[in-house]
Write a structure and sequence with these properties.
20 helices, 25 strands, alpha/beta, six-stranded mixed beta sheet
């Protein structure tokens, strides 16, 4: 009997020892390249091991060997660079999915529509190529008057020249305006006698007062929602919506992002995200911010969903507020007039707010009292002023807490005096730095003028003030391209080669932190994402070149080779 007990003891002992060894053995080890941990500015490591989707060890190759066993997958980086997975803190996943079938009207460098004639040709070719029925609605996306040679929006008549029977609507690159032809206006029941909706405008001929087809802000959003509802009646609409959402996810993954943001979820898109999550379709973590004004009446239904953790890779992050429009589209709300007013506007035109201080105050108060955070879209300095003014009042009333990590989005037309106020309120500015590259020349010569343009996306001023900031891409305003955003923040070089505000340039490391560890902090996830550290999720991106050593002018050329979510490869460049 003693021998039996002894044998059982020995078996248990060796089983436990073997279990401990197995627990120490990594599932994967990465080595043979540069590993940038984002833990500090000088931390470069040789190896990282992964167990059960989490980082187990970071350090020397010899140290990693202690955690490897016969079953460990060994990944030789072959001189490439591994970083934490990029984090999208402000994009629009469902918007991209919603226009997946839209005709691409973007200009260079992402497309080929550089004039109104180009736009007409592209849409006409699409109609011919796909044999579009004469009454089918057509949506185009990404036209950009800032880049097109005419430097103006197309008109209703120029779209009518393409087709008088197909309802056509084209969405501006900013997403804050659109243009419809006569057939589309008729379909949407928008007539010459229609009154402007709150927070929006119908463009009109200055002489006749008749509609010219342009729809701004809430006028455009309402038109697109109405059109979506009409098109959503098709029998395969839901299946198509899910398919498009998955295609959009693949785009984000191809740009190295392991956390994806839906920064203004509207309409049926909340249920679309929830359905995709329930089916286990998300490969990345998806965090969404419903539009507060849209869902205000049903706010109570969101309270149980605000748990600050992911369920089937989906999480409610807070709510989105759109305080004004777009600077490149000239609908942002400024304190000083636009350098060149848009067509049909007087020389003192300054854009316009979306809602009043009183509305913003009441809505934010409700949100903050429920311990929920917010993203506030503020492009013009008047909109920034409004956000700072309202949040300061809520802070004075002890309703706002810095622990909420409220984010002000874009902050393009910022002024130097904003910096201290942002710091004092502990807000997180998230800069759309790509503006300096894509629209810098337009801001310089038409939107703001040299002085104001030189201070857009003032990342270095924020850095010097000790403000934690992030950088975003605002897709589908641009593709979900954070590498170009890093390039723009580092160089601030416009398309023409002008350096726009050289004092606001930051280093590649500072820009990379803005899309990794800082981004994780903004989303209340710095304990599990944003850097390569034992215990955190094994979310990685592998780049073909090192952003810290490559010539700054060539950062845009860096390619994502692989995206890894919790140790699983979710994208590989072919």
């Amino acid at each position: 009997m003693k021998n039996l007990y002894y044998m059982i003891f020995v078996l248990i002992f060796f089983y436990n020892c073997q279990s401990r060894v197995q627990k120490q053995n990594a599932d994967i080890v990465y080595y043979g390249g540069t590993i940038l941990t984002m833990e500090n500015s000088i931390d470069r490591q040789e190896s990282v091991t992964v167990t059960n989707g989490r980082i187990q060890f970071v350090g020397s190759k010899s140290g990693a060997e202690k955690h490897t066993g016969p079953q460990t997958k060994k990944v030789d980086l072959q001189g490439k660079t591994l970083l934490p997975g990029f984090i999208d803190v402000h994009g629009h996943l469902t918007s991209r999915a919603g226009i997946m079938q839209a005709i691409d009207l973007s200009p260079t460098p992402y497309g080929k529509v550089n004039s109104i004639k180009d736009l007409q040709i592209v849409i006409e070719e699409y109609i011919r190529k796909y044999n579009i029925p004469s009454d089918q609605s057509i949506i185009g996306n990404g036209y950009d008057d800032a880049i097109m040679t005419e430097h103006r929006h197309p008109t209703k008549e120029e779209l009518d020249a393409i087709s008088k029977t197909n309802p056509i609507i084209i969405i501006h690159a900013s997403g804050h305006a659109s243009v419809a032809n006569s057939a589309m206006l008729k379909l949407l029941n928008i007539t010459d006698s229609s009154k402007d909706p709150d927070g929006g405008h119908y463009g009109r001929d200055k002489t006749t007062g008749k509609l010219n087809g342009k729809l701004e802000e809430n006028a455009s959003f309402a038109a697109l929602l109405s059109l979506t509802q009409k098109m959503g009646n098709a029998s395969n609409a839901k299946s198509l919506a899910i398919d498009n959402l998955m295609k959009a996810q693949e785009e984000w993954l191809s740009y190295g992002q392991t956390t994806i943001c839906d920064g203004r979820t509207m309409g049926e898109n909340v249920s679309l995200l929830e359905e995709a999550a329930s089916k286990g379709l998300f490969k990345a973590d998806v965090i969404y911010f419903p539009d507060y004004e849209y869902f205000k009446s049903s706010f109570d239904s969101f309270k149980p969903k605000y748990m600050r953790y992911y369920s089937n890779r989906l999480k409610l992050g807070g709510f989105k507020f759109s305080d004004d429009g777009s600077p490149q589209g000239k609908t942002a709300w400024l304190t000083q007039p636009y350098l060149v007013p848009p067509e049909g506007q007087s020389a003192d035109y300054k854009g316009f707010p979306i809602f009043s201080d009183e509305v913003l105050y009441t809505d934010l108060k409700t949100l903050f009292q429920n311990d929920m955070t917010a993203q506030l879209h503020v492009n013009g300095d008047a909109a920034i002023d409004q956000a700072l003014r309202v949040i300061q009042k809520l802070k004075d009333e002890k309703i706002y807490s810095p622990d909420l990590r409220v984010t002000i989005i874009h902050v393009q037309n910022s002024r130097p005096d904003h910096i201290k106020k942002i710091k004092d309120l502990d807000l997180i500015p998230s800069y759309f730095s790509t503006h300096a590259y894509l629209w810098g020349d337009w801001h310089y010569s038409s939107v703001f003028g040299p002085e104001r343009a030189s201070f857009i996306s003032p990342a270095n001023s924020a850095l010097k003030a000790g403000i934690l900031f992030t950088i975003h891409h605002d897709a589908p305003v641009t593709p979900p391209d954070l590498i170009t955003a890093v390039y723009a923040a580092v160089n601030r070089k416009t398309r023409s080669g002008r350096i726009l505000g050289p004092d606001e340039r930051i280093t590649p490391m500072e820009a990379l932190k803005a899309i990794t560890i800082n981004a994780a902090y903004q989303l209340h996830e710095e304990d599990r994402k944003g850097s390569i550290k034992p215990g955190k999720l094994a979310d990685f991106v592998i780049l073909d070149q090192n952003p810290l050593t490559i010539d700054h002018d060539k950062i845009r050329d860096i390619k994502v080779l692989e995206t890894i979510k919790e140790g699983v490869s979710v994208y590989q460049k072919k």
